[in-house]
Amino acid sequence: MGALVWSHVGLNCADQKTTEEFYTRYFGFTRARVVDLGDSRIVFLRKGDAYLELFAAAAEPARPAHVGVPPAVAGGDGPPAPGRIRHLAFQTDSVDAFLAELGDAAEVTLGPLDFDDFICGWRTVWVRDPDGVIVEVSQGYEDDRSHDKDGA
Q1: Which helix (H) or strand (E) holds 23?
Q2: What is the Cα–Cα distance from 65 to 60, expressed in whole angstroms?
Q3: What's the rounded Cα separation, in Å, for the pair 78 and 80?
Q4: What are phi and psi of 19, to 5 degrees?
Q5: Which side of the chain, N or C, has fewer Cβ within a 10 Å radius?
Q6: Torsion of the alpha carbons at 87, 50, 15 and 99, rounded to the nearest 10
Q7: DSSP assignment letter at 5
Q8: CA dist list (Å): 21 to 45, 93, 131, 143
């Protein structure tokens, strides 16, 4: 098998334009491509080698309450259920400056929290995007260099 490289994350959006504006304005993504599917479209956003693929969300079929994934948590770092993305994550130089830039658009679900007990200067906040996806923004995270390249 050939080498694998990370490609993208696909997001289902209630309003693609609102979601695109959120990630371009506050996270520095730019539009890379739009695929016209006739009755819908797919918008690709790029930042460096990272891509987001924005889809128009379809209505979810109704499920009995006892089947499937529990509803998303009201806050925190994202839904803990199997098969669901818990959160997207980004690094910044300053969580506080990021929150100031976000201003009224910031729907903080958890934090900011300091994790100095683990890594000096590690600070994190979680916010909700326009479609309810939890987005983590951290400063100061560093890998533990005592681990080998395989993460053992």
Answers
A1: helix 16-27
A2: 14
A3: 6
A4: -65, -45
A5: N
A6: 60
A7: -
A8: 10, 22, 12, 31
- Distance of alpha carbon 34 from alpha carbon 73, whole angstroms: 32
Q: Read off the pTM.
A: 0.72
pLDDT in tens, 52-90: 999 888 765 544 443 333 343 344 777 766 667 888 999
Residue spans of the domains in the chain: they are 1-59, 76-143
Q: Model confidence over 70-79: pLDDT tens digits?
A: 343 344 777 7
Q: Largest Cα–Cα distance in the chain?
A: 53
Amino acid identity at 68: G
Helices (runs of H) and strands (runs of E) counted in the chain: 2, 8
| CATH superfamily ID and name for 76-143 | 2,3-Dihydroxybiphenyl 1,2-Dioxygenase, domain 1 (3.10.180.10)
For domain 1-59, is the CATH number 3.10.180.10? yes
Reference 35, options 60, 8, 59; nearest CA is 8
Report d(CA 56, CA 67) in Å as an integer. Answer: 25
Place of tokens 């100031």: 100
Which helix (H) or strand (E) segment holds residue 51: the answer is: strand 50-56
- Per the structure block, which two tokens stand in for 46? 């790029």
